[in-house]
Amino acid sequence: MAETAPAIRSPSRSVLRIAVPMLPADIAAVLVPLLVLALMGRMAGDAQYVRALFMPVQFLFLALTAGLGAGNQVAAAVAHGAGDLRAAGAALLANARVAVGAGAAFSVPLIVSAPLLGDLMGVSGTARDDFTVFLCAIAPASVLLLGPALTASTLRGCGLARQAAAVTLLAAATEVGGVALLGLKAGLGVDGVAPAVALSGLVGTALGWVLLRRAGLLGPAAGRVRPLPARAAARQLLTVSVPVGASYLVICASNLALMRILAPFGPSVQAGYANAATLQTLLIMPGLVLGSATAIVLNSHRGAGRSRLLAPALHSGLRIAAGTYAVLAAVSYFGRELFAGLMTGDGRIAAETAHYLEVVGPSYLLMGLVLAALTVLEQVGGGPVALAMNAVYFVGAVTVGGWLARSTGDPAALYRTIAGFNGLGVVAVATTLLFVRRVAAREHAGRTPDGDAPEAVDAPPGAVGRARHPASGAGQPHS
Q1: N or C: which end of the chain has fewer CB within 10 A?
Q2: Helix, strand or coil, per DSSP, at residue 239
């Protein structure tokens, strides 16, 4: 059965109970593309080149996955807090239908226009056929990865973080293992990648479905799942899924722009920054995970009508993020030479990586708080606001930093700009605090005077293990 919604006496424990299992799973998911690319580098022919060409297209699928997963997680958390298992199941099925439609809208045009894309991207003649075949196979295979993402997000939203981590880790291991076995061991080369990706999606979805049924979120235990109202589904897409996906695209575009800014300074500078950015990708994961875990706790409180607990839960999540990034900032700064040396044997590249960490590393303390705060904001209804702030941050850092780097002839000017914008990100923290306070006030005002009474907080064990009768009104999610 799904976990219950008992009294939350320690907001910090509630956040950590979700965040700790999430972190290794999310890190594994981030490492999968890098490991697959490394395996393809061992294949004969143009395998690695073909995969590199697909990366910009893959960003679209990753944005779609991130957006739908976030929206689904929010709906599940609110339903979990309200004790309405059928609402969680309805949200999952509605998002699954959206995923099928969106996946088709992405993959079919890619398949049809694959030869044209090869021409537009300037693919060399020897690799053009391989790229076309690869794109036609990997596009529908990538859509299948939406299955593990959606099932895992429902499990997380309902407090089953370990089960969600199992789905993510199994899908990741299947993809990497499949590429190694089919591409290298069986000798299929690049033709073995798409089947491995498809198998990863199918296996992860199957495990997620089994765990959802075992938890009582789907199947006979959940009762008859009623369709999600069109208005609620549209609001979820517009306030959570679309802004999260768009923010992901903004981040990806800014990373490409930063590489272009550094191009005039030579390949050593670009490679040094790329290594630092790879390390930074891992460093941002705790902030995203803590923000997501905090948002799950907040949305569960919202579903249960515990609006007075929103602010304490947010404060706890931000305190944990501050403590975590105080350590990570110090480690990245004082360990910069070690990390840079581990990532490359080239002295010039290592020096550039260490220089970036020297300039930007101390600002990771504030960056961690910003990441956690913006992730919460995205998942409590402030998605458009979070998207706007993400756009201002990344466009500002790229524009100002690029101008300073070009005018001074020094890439360090770009690094200092990034560090400065990390510091200015405290505005995002303040905005999130104010937004959550407004949400709490609005939802408290819309409830009966005893909606936040202790009885609502001290729900007996098993209260959420049974779907409430719709007539009670208590099981309806709030978004």
Answers
A1: N
A2: helix
